[in-house]
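Why does residue order matter? Because the sequence determines the fold. Keep that principle in mind as you read this record.
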Amino acid sequence: MNREAEIIQSLRAAASLTPTLTVKQYQLWSRDRDVPTFLDVLNFYGSWTGALKAAGLVESRKQYTQQELIAALRLALEQEGRLTSTHYQQWAKGQVAPSLGDIISHFGSWSLAVKTVERLEELHFTAQPEREKAEIVQSLLEASRVVVPFNAVTYQKWAKRHKRPSVAKISRRYGSWKRALAELELRESCNGKK
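Structure:
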């Protein structure tokens, strides 16, 4: 029997015991059997959904792209504050969004979906600091020339009007407002005197 036929046969056998075959269910089912492992399945098809489709185990309903699923998960996290399956289900009830089943079917499990989103968020935030720092530096230099007197209070008002980084954001990035000014060799001023 070729590898693909072996995988499909195993997936169908495991699926006959449950209405929705998840990665965890397959792993438990395959544990003491001489069948392809979850990793074998993933390596062969590239995704859990791809494997389920090949085995004819995915219902013909709206198929979401990975980008659509991730966008829904990110939005749910943003609006709910937490990304648990229960919070997601509550959030999805009032939305035109993928169901919990859609997400589990695509990623193989809820925890793999969450890990994917967390990994993407991590990549996003590791690319952000340099852009963020450049924006802060540019804003502080510009404000030091045009804001009189130049201090945390007057800067905050200016930053809000011009949609620039806040004093809080600057303080988080540099440890404090004063450290940011010291690093850029800027001084606060009182009544226009520096």
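Residues 12 and 135 are 54 Å apart (CA to CA).
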